[in-house]
């Protein structure tokens, strides 16, 4: 799907509300036809502003947004033909479910006979065919969100925007709805731009995820690449669980580098965005890529540390260790019968591969804090 | 089969236990709830008592006074008793005249004749002098030709109409006041007819009262809606300031506000001078002591009652509804009409009801800034209570006002839909 033709293009888009701080900085983004793109980031990162500019509720301060090759900067939102699902559903309380779903068709002056059939079909699609005569207030949160989905899809928009649509639901329902939305997307072949601050939601549903931070896209990639090859320390820490080890670059050799940790140990790492010797760096290692005891044959790095805590979680074991230099590392190891569980105070060796250990430039804020 | 005992107990014993447990549980629940109910009643009791004493009882009293009719029967009991058998076809028997002679003599002695005279005067103009003269010079009850003696006093004693009026006023209940309040009366034969043209005023006044109230309500709605909308969309600081401006008139006496309009709207007032200066008009136009003045002053006074319920409703309508409607393809105007406006309806309904009902009872403002032809029903109620002390008529007009308002409210709430009116 990635690489399909471009449906939406943001070129050099900037947005400021107060004329001082840019909420969105020089945004270049291509959204491909048929893809499920998630804008992920903490609050205030510019993801919702980006979505609102696409919907037409915010006007870019600079730059251009094109839809199907046509600039839409000055096109009012109601003429963009973009479906939208809001976080608080925004179902009209004075209309029945069926009237809500019929609304976009009625304002488009679709013939009456057609409306009935389309509404029935849309409600059927979200498994709410029986609920047409109810009021939104008589439905549960999950049902309301489905009605909102049906309403955003009923007029066959090419593009559907979703602004944290599952934020108000409990965890179990949220996970269920994630799959439902994903399947709807696959079945209907529409383009979806989805905003969330929940990284597991982003990884579950998306073809591509754009990680926003400070008004800038830090990385835009498929979920697995985002997880395995984060482009900087922010992405590494924001997506999934992560361990950080601070140190300095000693030598750089192609895409490998040697790093002296603050504790004095020397390790091999994959170079990401560090460019010279003696530069401070943060090494990112996923908890499941740290090994205690049996380790793969190709591990290149070994450290000795003290066990601080060890928690048994059924399918896996979480061990927190302290290594020289004061950093604490979290290790996730597969649980299996008769596994001897490390005890607090034990001094043991842990190991990891150079390719699982990414050397990033420290985040500016992190450096400032330190 | 096994469980079917001699007592016809069909259900398994466990169910029986559950039922007993359920009853016990309900009793316990009732006991537990009782204290709460007593406490809740205790909290509302002072207000309830106050409302009963100062509101419900007076209204009941007013409704009672509009049908009560005991003045004549208490002053002239013998006459009333004697008139019972009178059919009304010809003059009453001598018995009646004699009874009247005794009653009037006694009334003269007790000084109570005037009460009866006033009551009968409501029915037929000039009755006061008729009774008062008769009381003063009442023929002796032993007079041989008593009828002739009365007629000699005043020819009207020889008319059936006179006695019919006395009989109509015999009480203890009458529809006289209520009929009069809607320009109806009984004729001599007892059937209900319209009052003569020159005496028919109340239907006009009632119509005028509703017309003015309706106009004021609509004017308030059109002016309050944009203000309430603005307030609901502004940040809290600006909204609070606007709210204070809206409420400011509440802190000024009604009389002062009305008097201020007199100053502004009079011929040499600010508004007229401004219009002349701007060249809109050549000479001052009459803005006060006519219906313009009444509408302007009443709308001004009642505006906050429209703004407040509208504001509280609009405040609760989240902006994302409009955004959702627009994102679904509705142009802003369509989104406003189809999504925003319907959600304002409870506030519109409440505001209109509040303003209309308050306007119907308005008295001071029209009295001060209106002309003779702009007085509303309350003016006449006040007139009958304070000037002519005709409590029956005042009560009847009040009852008519109350009844029409209730009927209108019923129609209105049916139109708007049950439960759609939201006061706050």
Automatic annotation (TrEMBL), chain A:
Residues 8-239 form the ABC transporter domain. The keyword RNA-binding does not apply. GO terms for cellular component: ATP-binding cassette (ABC) transporter complex. PROSITE patterns: ABC_TRANSPORTER_1, ABC_TRANSPORTER_2. Its EC number is 7.6.2.11. Keywords: ATP-binding, Cell membrane, Membrane, Nucleotide-binding, Translocase, Transport. It catalyses: ATP + H2O + polyamine-[polyamine-binding protein]Side 1 = ADP + phosphate + polyamineSide 2 + [polyamine-binding protein]Side 1. One of its GO terms (molecular function) is ABC-type polyamine transporter activity. Gene3D superfamilies: 2.40.50.100, Nucleic acid-binding proteins, P-loop containing nucleotide triphosphate hydrolases. One of its GO terms (biological process) is putrescine transport. It is an enzyme of class 7 (translocase). Belongs to the ABC transporter superfamily. Spermidine/putrescine importer (TC 3.A.1.11.1) family. The complex is composed of two ATP-binding proteins (PotA), two transmembrane proteins (PotB and PotC) and a solute-binding protein (PotD). Part of the ABC transporter complex PotABCD involved in spermidine/putrescine import. Responsible for energy coupling to the transport system. This is Spermidine/putrescine import ATP-binding protein PotA. It comes from Telmatospirillum siberiense. The lineage of its organism: Bacteria, Pseudomonadati, Pseudomonadota, Alphaproteobacteria, Rhodospirillales. The gene is potA.
From TrEMBL, chain B:
It is found in: Cell membrane. One of its GO terms (biological process) is transmembrane transport. GO terms for cellular component: plasma membrane. It comes from the Bacteria. The keyword Transmembrane helix applies. Keywords: Cell membrane, Membrane, Transmembrane, Transmembrane helix, Transport. It is a multi-pass membrane protein. Residues 206-412 form the ABC transmembrane type-1 domain. Its main location: membrane. The keyword Transport applies. InterPro entries: MetI-like, MetI-like_sf. The chain crosses the membrane at residues 38-64, 212-231, 238-264, 296-314, 348-369, 389-412. PANTHER family: ABC TRANSPORTER PERMEASE PROTEIN, INNER MEMBRANE ABC TRANSPORTER PERMEASE PROTEIN YDCU-RELATED-RELATED. Belongs to the binding-protein-dependent transport system permease family. CysTW subfamily. This is Polyamine ABC transporter substrate-binding protein. It comes from Telmatospirillum siberiense.
């Amino acid at each position: 799907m990635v690489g399909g033709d471009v449906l939406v293009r943001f070129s050099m888009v900037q947005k400021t509300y107060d004329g001082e701080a840019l909420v969105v900085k020089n945004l270049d983004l291509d959204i491909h036809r048929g893809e499920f793109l998630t804008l992920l980031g903490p609050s205030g990162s510019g993801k919702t502003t980006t979505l609102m500019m696409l919907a037409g509720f915010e006007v870019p301060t600079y730059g251009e947004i094109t839809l199907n090759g046509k600039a839409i900067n000055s096109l009012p939102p109601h003429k963009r033909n973009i479906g939208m699902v809001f976080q608080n559903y925004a179902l009209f309380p004075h209309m029945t479910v069926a009237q809500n779903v019929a609304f976009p068709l009625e304002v488009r002056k679709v013939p009456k006979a057609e409306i009935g059939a389309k509404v029935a079909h849309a409600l059927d699609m979200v498994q709410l065919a029986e609920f047409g005569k109810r009021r939104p207030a008589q439905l549960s949160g999950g049902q309301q969100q489905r009605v909102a989905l049906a309403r955003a899809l009923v007029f066959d928009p090419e593009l559907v925007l979703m602004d944290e649509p599952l934020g108000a639901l409990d965890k179990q329902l949220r996970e269920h709805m994630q799959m439902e939305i994903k399947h709807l997307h696959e079945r209907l072949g529409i383009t979806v731009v989805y905003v969330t601050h929940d990284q597991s939601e982003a990884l579950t549903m998306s073809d591509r995820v754009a990680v926003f931070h400070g008004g800038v896209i830090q990385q835009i990639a498929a979920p697995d690449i985002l997880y395995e090859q984060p482009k900087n320390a922010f992405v590494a820490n924001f997506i999934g669980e992560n361990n950080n080890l601070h140190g300095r670059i000693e030598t750089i050799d192609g895409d490998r580098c040697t790093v002296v940790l603050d504790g004095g140990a020397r390790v091999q790492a994959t170079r990401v965005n560090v460019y010279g010797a003696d530069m401070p760096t943060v090494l990112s290692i996923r908890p499941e890529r740290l090994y205690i005891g049996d380790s793969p044959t190709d591990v290149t790095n070994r450290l000795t540390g003290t066990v601080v805590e060890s928690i048994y979680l059924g399918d896996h074991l979480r061990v927190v260790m302290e290594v020289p230099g004061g950093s604490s590392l979290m290790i996730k190891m597969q649980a299996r019968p008769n596994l001897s569980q490390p005890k607090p105070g034990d001094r043991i060796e842990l190991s990891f591969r150079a390719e699982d250990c990414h050397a990033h430039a420290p985040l500016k804020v992190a450096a400032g804090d330190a | 089969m096994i469980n079917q005992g001699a007592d016809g107990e069909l259900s398994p014993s466990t169910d029986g236990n559950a039922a007993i447990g359920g009853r016990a549980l309900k009793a316990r629940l009732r006991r537990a709830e009782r204290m709460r109910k007593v406490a809740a009643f205790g909290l509302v009791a002072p207000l309830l008592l106050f409302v009963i004493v100062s509101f419900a009882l007076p209204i009941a009293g007013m409704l009672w006074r509009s049908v009560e009719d005991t003045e004549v029967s208490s002053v002239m009991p013998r006459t009333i008793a004697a008139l019972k058998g009178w059919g009304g076809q010809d003059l009453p028997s001598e018995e009646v005249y004699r009874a009247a002679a005794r009653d009037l003599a006694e009334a003269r002695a007790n000084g109570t004749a005037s009460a009866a005279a006033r009551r009968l005067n409501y029915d037929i103009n000039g009755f006061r002098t008729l009774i008062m003269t008769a009381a003063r010079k009442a023929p002796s009850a032993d007079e041989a030709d008593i009828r002739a003696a009365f007629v000699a006093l005043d020819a009207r004693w020889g008319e059936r109409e006179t006695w019919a009026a006395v009989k109509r006023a015999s009480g203890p209940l009458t529809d006289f006041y209520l009929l009069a309040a809607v320009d109806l009366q009984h004729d001599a034969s007892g059937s209900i007819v319209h009052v003569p043209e020159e005496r028919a005023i109340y239907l006009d006044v009632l119509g005028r009262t509703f017309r003015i109230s309706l106009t004021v309500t609509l004017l308030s709605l059109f002016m309050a809606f944009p203000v309430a909308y603005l307030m609901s969309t502004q940040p809290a600081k600006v909204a609070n300031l606007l709210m204070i401006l809206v409420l400011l008139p509440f802190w000024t006496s009604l009389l002062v506000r009305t008097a201020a309009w007199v100053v502004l709207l009079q011929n040499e007032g600010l508004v007229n001078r401004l219009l002349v200066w701007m060249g809109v008009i050549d000479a001052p136009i009459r803005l006060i002591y006519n219906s313009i003045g009444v509408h302007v002053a009443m709308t001004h006074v009642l505006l906050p009652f429209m703004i407040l319920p509208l504001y509280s409703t609009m405040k609760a309508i989240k902006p994302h509804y409009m955004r959702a409607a627009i994102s679904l393809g509705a142009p802003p105007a369509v989104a406003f009409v189809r999504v925003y406006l319907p959600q304002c309806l409870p506030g519109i309904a409440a505001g209109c009801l509040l303003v209309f009902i308050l306007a119907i009872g308005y008295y001071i403002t029209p009295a001060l800034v209106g002309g003779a032809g702009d007085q509303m029903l309350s003016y006449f109620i006040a007139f009958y209570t304070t000037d002519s002390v005709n409590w029956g008529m005042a009560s009847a007009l009040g009852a008519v006002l109350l009844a029409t308002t209730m009927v209108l409210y019923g129609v209105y709430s049916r139109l708007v839909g049950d439960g759609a009116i939201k006061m706050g």
